[in-house]
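[Q] Does anyone have a clean structure-token version of this?
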Amino acid sequence: MIETEKEIEVINESDIKPNSNITKKEYESKFMRHRFFALSYSIFGIIILILVIIALIITGAYPCVHTKCHEHATCFNTPFYADCVCKEGFAGDGRDHCDECGITNFKHNANDTGSGSVPYSWPATGILEFMYTTLTKLEQERVLLYNYEACGAVLINRKTALTAAHCIRTEYSYFDWYYYKYFVINVTFNNFHPNFESIYSLYFGINKFVNYYVDLPHVQLGDVKDIIIHPEYNKVTYENDIAIVTFLNEINLDRYTQIACLPTKEKSNNYPEKNHNKAFIAGYSSVGDSYIDYNQYNIRLDIYNNSMCQDVQQYRTKNWNRQFCAGEYDPHGNLTSQCHGDYGSPLYVLDEINGKQKYVATGLLSYDVPCDVEHAPAVYTRISMYTDWIIENSRY
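[A] Here you go.
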């Protein structure tokens, strides 16, 4: 019979028995060789395992060792993740880009009486539009309703903007002339609006109010991905009146659109302080008068003592740690027809960022009085109190 399979001999101390062809010395030598190889393989495997564990520990504890951040970013080690954070004066994802804030290519002409702004001189200021359609029941009738509102916003990185929380509507009042009364309309996703993107639009790179048949050669639209209202926002007092809007797409930064600087962490919680008497705002409406100008205007304002705003909408409780007061800068005491921007518009002050003079977004217009009220004081949300919250929720 011809043998077709090769016999594999398994050798261990109990099975191997010396025969006439193998001496005891040869048997012991053969067994020791197998034992040496088995031990060598085990030690080698253990060494490999230890090296893998060490590599995992290093990777998990110090991921910045093998991560390249942007030149204007700092890398922070977190478990198994390198957190690239743009340095102050820059904003972005920390890896591919960290964009310098506060860049302007057109000098503004804001003064104490208000005037039409130099086009694109406030390149971080934008418009947030709310357009909502719903089919709802009013008393015994089922009717189709449409509502439109506009607020200001400020771009803080390529995919994030800030606005006032009260501009993000969960409901609105509708007056029906037939029933001659107000109805509260809840704002929810429906067949017309399956997501935020279909309700809100943000426009940047503009110097005219966004409307049909208006020439907008440099406009950019932010497709809304998510809206984060401050968790402590009070819709009665307007305390913590701030919201973050994130985009699905990136806004391109160019001569007409740029990001605003935010207060640095070194700034006091009282920022901006009273000595910042060069404050500026740009927008399309004197909101206290419900007046819309289709060309952007800008005006110089003054940071007031908080007592000047104590009577502004008295039913709203003030919290001057998180709010501040500003109004007309007019040394002659005259009244202007334009005194504020749009709700949610940023108030800028001139300050130093990384050794450069920049316009820093310090407040968001929350509520005010009509422009024919002396000094036209208004209450602003103090952005410096929310820096950490903004940074945490604006990463991408």
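[Q] Thanks! Anything notable?
[A] The mean pLDDT is 85.
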